[in-house]
């Protein structure tokens, strides 16, 4: 008669710790990162083991078309700390983080990119800052290894978010961030389709900190943020967190209207004094085209707000989970 297989004491202890309510949750969105996943998982596991507290690692497969999901399932089969969320298709990085937040159980939740540019070894610094009393702690990438275009685009995004939210931080684009459980619960209550989580978290947090974290050059894979996605992100930020853009356009429109009336009066008086003249015709055309361009810009900003309203009233889900793999 065959005897039942037995587990080693060390594996039983690991499973027992995994079943406890975790103190730390690490949320990692994944999209076509097969080259980085094994090194990433090893690094995150080593860091988490150093805390000597219950933890979980939540991977969200955001519709990967490479073997990323297969690799994540291997992690989940071998490691009781791992949870894998499979999306039905690609919904985007922030939708993946929302899904990870929904499934997380930790008192402190850390988000991390899967590209290994922000080393997991920086996680303890963020956790210690949360334990010191902060609600949200963001990473600030020192000595960024990205291209000049990416650095300039990131600087513009940071300026826009700081202007829109009123919270000035150096690096909103760094996904290596830590949150208290209470902040994550408030974020999960927000139902808007398009949202930027670092900016959204700052609307609920009282104590916010930012610490320096290392930044590495991407050695495997390629960035998922193209120029088009960065432009779309900027429009989402401008229209999603503030009415200032449309208010600024309204104020500028009032200024243009007053200026136009004054200029018309000036031309009328000049015609009465000097008489008909053909000079300045092209100048008037230039001014007219400038005003038309401003009107089109204003119409585009209004359209962004209308489009957001349209997306929200349809009540479509932010993401669709195909399956959750949990030990």
Give me the secondary-structure topology.
Blueprint: H1 9-19, E1 24-30, H2 37-51, E2 55-61, H3 68-78, E3 82-87, H4 93-103, E4 108-111, H5 123-131, E5 136-141, H6 148-165, E6 177-180, H7 181-189, H8 197-202, E7 208-213, H9 227-240, H10 244-274, H11 281-313, E8 321-326
Parallel strand pairs: 1-2, 1-4, 2-3, 5-7
Antiparallel strand pairs: 3-8, 4-6, 5-6
Q: Report the span from N to C terminus.
A: 29 Å
**Could you report the average pLDDT, rounded to the nearest whole number?**
80
Oligomer: single chain
Estimate the global geometry from the Cα principal axes. Answer: elongated
Structural class: alpha/beta
Cα radius of gyration in angstroms: 26 Å
Helix content: 40-55%
Q: Which spans have pLDDT < 50 for at least 5 consecutive residues?
A: 1-6
Could you give a quick summary of the protein structure above?
The protein is of the alpha/beta class and 327 residues long. It is built from eleven helices and eight strands. The longest helix is centred in the last third of the chain and has 33 residues.
What this model shows, in words?
It is a single chain. The chain is an alpha/beta fold and 327 residues long. It is 51% helix and 14% strand. Strands 7-5-6-4-1-2-3-8 form an eight-stranded mixed beta sheet, sandwiched between helices. Strand 2, helix 3 (68-78) and strand 3 (82-87) form a beta-alpha-beta unit. It is elongated and about 90 Å long. Mean pLDDT is 80; it is low at 1-6.
């Amino acid at each position: 008669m065959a005897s039942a297989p037995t587990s080693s004491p060390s594996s039983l202890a690991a499973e027992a710790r995994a079943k406890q309510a975790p103190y730390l949750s690490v949320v990692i969105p994944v999209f076509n990162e097969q080259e980085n996943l094994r090194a990433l998982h090893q690094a995150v596991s080593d860091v988490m083991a150093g805390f000597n507290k219950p933890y979980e690692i939540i991977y969200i497969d955001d519709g990967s078309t490479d073997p990323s999901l297969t690799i994540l399932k291997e992690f989940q089969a071998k490691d009781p700390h791992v949870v894998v969320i499979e999306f039905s298709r690609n919904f985007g990085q922030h939708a993946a983080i929302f899904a990870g937040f929904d499934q997380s159980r930790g008192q402190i939740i850390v988000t991390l990119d899967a590209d290994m540019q922000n080393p997991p070894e920086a996680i303890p610094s963020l956790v210690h800052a949360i334990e010191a009393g902060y609600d949200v702690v963001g990473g600030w990438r020192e000595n960024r290894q990205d291209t000049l275009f990416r650095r300039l685009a990131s600087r513009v995004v940071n300026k826009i978010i700081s202007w829109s939210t009123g919270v000035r931080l150096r690096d909103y684009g760094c996904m290596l961030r830590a949150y208290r459980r209470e902040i994550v619960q408030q974020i999960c209550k927000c139902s808007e389709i398009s949202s930027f989580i670092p900016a959204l978290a700052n609307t609920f947090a009282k104590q916010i900190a930012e610490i320096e974290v290392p930044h590495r050059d991407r050695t495997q894979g390629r960035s998922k943020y193209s120029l088009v996605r960065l432009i779309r992100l900027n429009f989402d930020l401008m229209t999603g967190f503030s009415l200032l853009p449309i208010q600024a356009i309204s104020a500028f429109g009032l200024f243009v209207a007053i200026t136009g009336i004054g200029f018309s009066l000036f031309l009328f008086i000049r015609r009465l004094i000097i008489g008909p003249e053909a000079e300045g015709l092209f100048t008037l055309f230039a001014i007219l085209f400038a005003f038309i361009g401003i009107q089109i810009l204003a119409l585009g900003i209004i359209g962004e707000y209308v489009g957001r309203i349209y997306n929200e009233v349809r009540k479509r889900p932010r993401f669709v989970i195909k399956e959750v793999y949990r030990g």
